[in-house]
Amino acid sequence: MKKSIRWRLILIVLTVLLSALFFLPNTPVWKVMPEWWKKNMPDRGIVLGLDLQGGTHLVFEVDSKRAIEVMTDRLSQSLKGLLEKKNIKAEVLTRFDSVYITPGEVDIETLIKESYPELDIKRSQQSLVIKYSEREIQRLLDSAADQALETIRNRIDQFGVVEPTIQRQGKDEIVVQLPGIKDPKRAIEIIGKTAQLEFKLVDEESPLWKDLLGEESPLWKDLPQPIKQEEEEQFLKDFLPRLPEGNEILFQRIVDRQTGEIIKIPYILKKEVLLTGSLLTDARVQIDSRFNKPYVLLSFNAVGARIFEDVTAKNVKKRLAIVLDGNVYSAPVIQERISGGNAQITGNFTMEEAKDLAIVLRAGALPAPLKLLENVTVGPSLGRDSIEAGKRAALGAFLMVVIFMVLYYRLSGIIADFALVLNLILLIGAMAMLNATLTLPGIAGIILAIGMAVDSNVLMFERIREELRAGKTPKAAIDGGYKKAFWTIFDSHVTTLITAAVLFQFGTGPIKGFAVTLSLGVSINLFTALIGTKTIFDIISNRRDLRRLSI
Questions:
Q1: Are residues 359 and 464 in the same domain?
Q2: Same-domain status, 311 and 352
Q3: What pLDDT is attached to residue 416?
């Protein structure tokens, strides 16, 4: 046997062995493999898509109106900072998408235009009306959708869903597909939680604070008396008209684990935000050694640690409320200056609730709330039916091609069938190596690859037949047939690969699955057709007594 043939045989055997190793996680054999093998070898294999193993399909919409309000609030804070830096006294008010500034004698319009050229500034009686230009609003909304997309992706990655599909749809919609998820309600809560973390002072000096305390009891000593959930609306009607400017009322929600009853503790807070979650570096779950209950430990970056230390130093013996998405999680009394950049969120958490809270805080806040537009759950039974139908279709296509090749090309047809089997083995191994997601369109791509795997051999066999009719020996006919068919096969495969690349780039999840299996099948087909079958033909043609080729 020639050296070149030997090396090609070794290459074919190695690729088959590697394909089998990569596919092991998808077989029952994986369960009995030793632990050291599982730790050091690929452990995922081929992942089934949403349409095959079931799961949840969600469509969210970024709340554009609220996003504009959030942007305007931030603009207002920035303008206040600019004026304070220049020692300019002016009244700054925010209303939906506009900031109203009532300046004194100093002309601040030029100052604002120089610092914020993207703003539209108009005069209305005694005030300046400032808002973002239409072009800037569209840019900010587009940025908000992109930010929401990345935030959702970070949260889902930490949630542990394998091969999710997360992509934008239209201007402000985000499609999320979660294959195999067992608790869609929990996933929706994690994805949709805005996670705007804020630290605010409780205003215990407010004239309304004593009214909230009610009758002192050992359980609620120095805390407002709780109310039932159904009493919240009436409570706000009674207290909001008397609420001083610069204050707000937010509630701490407490759920009785045994009865499921919900009570709420009202707090009067100062509207000023002392610290936000944008300065967080980490959020992780810890266990309180004293009460054996989980809490969330927050870690701030250098800027956040400095601000937190300054806030706690100035407000010793005052309550600091930790507010997430408008809900008070806890309002502990500051006993002393807190340095080191760490804070705790305590509450009546279960371990799962504490983990979910840590996830959304680590992943960052959404730029605006999300509206759930569509929630479709795909049952696994539908996926099993699809897999069985796909298996039957693939097996039927495989058998028809095998039988046709043997009947039409005889011994050479058996060689082509060998290439077909080799193509399927390598295709499955490559998908397992890449942890590719197999979808129903992906199965269609595999079936198409079966046809294309034989198409190349048909071109070469017809060229070999032409060479034999011209009177050449079998060995010369094989060499000539492969050389003449090479560029035709190569060109057709390259154009198919380009098509698959376009489908993958611009297609949605299922279309991408089709593009992956098609591109892998086409690439592997070049190897099996030009190296696999050629190696078998070379082994046969090297026999000295070969006078006739069965083709």
A1: no
A2: yes
A3: 84
Structural domain ending residue among the three candidates 375, 393, 414 = 375
Residue 346 and residue 394 in one domain? no
CATH of the domain at 272: 3.30.1360.200
Bridge partners of residue 123, in order along the sequence: 128
For residue 170, CA distances in Å to 61, 146, 370, 372 come to: 10, 12, 15, 15
- Give me the pLDDT at residue 469, please: 84
Do 47 and 78 lie in one domain? The reply is no
Residue 163 belongs to a domain = no
**What is the number of structural domains in the chain?**
3
- For residues 129 and 33, state if they share a domain: no
Report yes or no: 145 and 62 within 8 Å, Cβ to Cβ. yes
With H, G, I as helix, E, B as strand and everything else as coil, classify residue 435. Answer: coil
Specify if 175 maps to a domain.
no
Residue 54 tokens, joined: 């079931």
pLDDT mean values, one per 10 residues, the chain (551 residues)? 77 88 84 78 76 81 84 80 79 81 73 82 82 85 84 77 77 84 79 83 88 63 82 89 88 80 90 84 84 86 87 90 86 86 80 82 77 79 69 80 84 85 88 80 80 81 84 82 84 86 76 82 85 82 69 76
| CA–CA gap between residue 82 and residue 89 (Å, rounded) | 11
User: Could you write out the three-class secondary structure of 194-236?
Assistant: CCCEEEEEECCCCCCHHHHHCCCCCCCCCCCCCEEHHHHHHHH
Enter the tokens of residue 418: 């060998």
Q: Same domain for 409 and 357?
A: no
Reduced to 3 states, what is the DSSP secondary structure of residue 381? helix
Token pair recorded at residue 321 = 């409320």
Residue 400 lies in a domain: yes
505-507-509-512 Cα dihedral, nearest 10 degrees: -60
pLDDT at 267: 93
Q: What is the largest CA-CA distance in the chain?
A: 111
- The answer to whether residues 200 and 346 belong to one domain is yes
Q: What CATH number does residue 495 fall under?
A: 1.20.1640.10
Q: Is residue 118 part of a domain?
A: yes
- CA-atom Rg of the chain in angstroms: 34
Q: How far is CA 297 from the centre of its chain?
A: 25
> Is there a single domain that holds both residue 33 and residue 79?
no
Q: Which of 59, 58, 50, 57 is nearest to 163 (CA)?
A: 50
SS3 376: strand
Could you give the C-alpha distances from 151 to 142, 156, 167, 367, in angstroms and in order? Answer: 14, 9, 12, 9
Show the DSSP H helices in 86-176 as ranges. Answer: 109-115, 134-159
In which domain, by residue range, is 117 found?
64-136
Which residues on neighbouring strands pair with residue 280, listed in sequence order?
300
Location of structure tokens 């796909």 = 390
The structure's pTM equals 0.58
Q: Which two tokens stand for residue 145?
A: 């959708």
Phi-psi region of 269 (alpha: psi -120 to 50; beta: other; left: phi over 0): beta
Backbone angles phi, psi at 366, to 5 degrees: -70, 145
